[in-house]
Specification:
five-stranded mixed sheet; 530 residues; FERM_f0
Length: 530
């Protein structure tokens, strides 16, 4: 080992560079102290050594300078440590990470991933509220609102531009006159985003059925619960496996055909949209007792999904919410839709019966939350998990039908508010009506006391309705199986009839052949047949 190590040290604030000599085993913190002494700088602990090679990194104080292999004209910058703690979410876990205020995002990814124990930082990206951070800017140039409290997602992802390059490469291998076939059923979700020359944000196997249902099927009873025509669904499946370029509406006989091909695609995905990697995290999040923390953790996990999965789940949940708004007509509320969608969106990698039984309620619960809170989950619309409450400051006596009498000091629930000067409110006696908005003051963060008796009654009713709903879904499932069994029996009879016709035809041909041979024998003798 050399007795001394020459280190090229840059001083950005002076715009100068100097060659300095240190013993190889000198610790980085000791190097900093010696530099400060030579340059007349106070507070060496507020400075750091930053290697500009590659993506750049800070030298750690307790490491010897020799370990960084800083020869061959490699430069280190001697500058102030400018760090701020930011909230980084990785795989649903929240970390407080020191972030350099100056370095670009691309240069910080290797540092942050290494601090989190991630060995390979390739294809990792930062996402804030659904949008990718610009890798060429630092964190503080990204228009992140209240950045010290914001949660920034770190996840592994393949940008769509990379997928487009893969498409172009595959196309070059094909002949010009060859029809490009791109099967999507029983393939990973992202495969459905690359159709021909297009790169989609959401697969057409989702958007086309959803558009059809929203146009023709929102008030159809049992939508998504009842099955469509088997032959039509199989035909649609074959078409989607070849191309997106066909008239979906002309081929669909009913909204149940549209929902049927979507459900088939979802069932046949090799990995569910909420991914197996995050499966246990989703289950753990659903077990959090506090509703607010539970929903918040679910949102962290949703944003940790790969971009194709995030966009697909967002599209599905928004559509299901729209369908649930017609539950009075279609009998498909959020709970019913969640029971149908849950096992397909979040499927356990462990297919044992015990795992299925244990996790089924979580699948329903998580899916119901994603649907009911889709604006908060996917569009970052903050909401209170309690309705706004107001305190009455002036007494108001109802004088017309539809108005509500309120007394000074009462706490009332605001059901609907606008700029008209009249709000819809619900009083302590649960009566609802109009009140003058200027007679009350909103009470921020008010949480109403629990109403035990009322809650118990509602619990019994909702449990009964839940059981009835499950029974209905099981009945529909049984009817669907009986229908399929009936169709199979019909096909079996048809096949048996065809086989019988073939058998009879063969027998007739045999008999005819024998008759011809006998006629020939009678006329010419046996020798002519030899």
């Amino acid at each position: 080992m050399a007795a001394f190590l020459l280190l090229k040290v840059s001083f950005p604030y002076k715009q100068t560079t100097k060659m300095m000599k240190f013993t190889p085993l000198t610790l980085v913190e000791e190097v900093k102290e010696q530099i400060c002494t030579r340059e007349g700088i106070e507070n060496p602990e507020s400075f750091g050594l930053f290697c500009t090679t590659g993506n750049g990194f800070w030298l750690e104080d307790k490491q010897p300078i020799f370990g960084y292999e800083l020869w061959n004209d490699k430069t280190v910058e001697f500058k102030k440590n400018i760090f701020r703690n930011l909230n980084i979410v990785y795989l649903g876990e929240l970390y407080t990470v020191p972030i350099d205020e100056i370095l670009s995002v691309s240069k910080q990814i290797p540092i942050i991933t290494r601090n989190l124990g991630i060995t390979n930082y390739l294809n990792f990206v930062f996402v804030y509220q659904g949008r990718f951070l610009n890798e060429n800017k630092n964190f503080f140039e990204q228009e992140i609102e209240d950045i010290d409290k914001a949660e920034i997602i770190l996840k592994k992802d393949i940008p769509l531009s990379v997928k487009k390059i893969e498409i172009d490469a595959n196309k070059k291998k094909k002949k010009k006159d060859e029809i490009i076939s791109n099967p999507i059923f029983q393939k990973p979700l992202h495969v459905a985003l690359t159709r021909g020359e297009k790169v989609l944000e959401v697969p057409t196997i989702l958007t086309k059925p959803f558009e059809y249902v929203e146009k023709f099927g929102m008030d159809v009873e049992g939508i998504y619960r009842k099955s469509g025509g088997k032959n039509t669904i199989e035909k649609l499946k074959d078409l989607f496996d070849k191309s997106d370029d066909f008239n979906f509406q002309e081929l669909v006989s009913s909204p149940h055909d549209a929902t049927g091909v979507f459900k088939l695609y979802l069932r046949e995905l090799p990995e569910p949209p909420l991914t197996w990697e995050l499966y246990d995290k989703f289950i753990e999040a659903d077990e959090i007792p506090e509703n607010w923390e539970r929903v918040k953790q679910l949102r962290r996990l949703v944003y940790s999904l790969p971009t194709p999965n995030f966009n697909a789940v967002k599209c599905i949940c928004e559509h299901m919410f729209k369908v649930s708004q017609y539950s009075a007509q279609n009998q498909m509320g959020i709970s019913n839709l969640a029971m149908l969608m849950g096992p397909n969106l979040l499927r356990s990698p462990d297919e044992s019966m015990s795992a299925v039984v244990t996790d089924t309620r979580h699948q329903y619960s998580i899916c119901a939350t994603l649907i009911s809170e889709y604006e908060y989950m996917f569009y970052n619309k903050e909401k209170s998990f309690y309705p706004p409450f107001a305190k009455v400051v002036y007494e108001f006596q109802a004088s017309e039908k539809g108005e509500l009498t309120i007394k000074v000091g009462e706490i009332i629930e605001v059901v609907k508010s606008d700029d008209s000067g009249w709000w819809v409110a619900r009083g302590p006696n649960k009566k609802q009506g109009l009140i003058p908005s200027s007679y009350v003051e909103i009470v921020p963060d008010y949480i109403p006391p629990p109403r035990v008796k009322r809650k118990q009654v509602q619990g019994k009713q909702s449990k009964k309705q839940h059981i009835q709903s499950q029974i209905q879904i099981l009945k529909d499932s049984l009817n669907e199986e009986l229908k399929i069994k009936s169709e199979l029996q019909t096909e079996k009879k048809e096949l048996e009839s065809i086989l019988k016709e073939i058998h009879d035809s063969i027998q007739q041909e045999i008999q005819l052949t024998i008759k011809i041979e006998n006629l020939i024998k009678a006329k010419h003798g046996d020798d002519i047949l030899k």
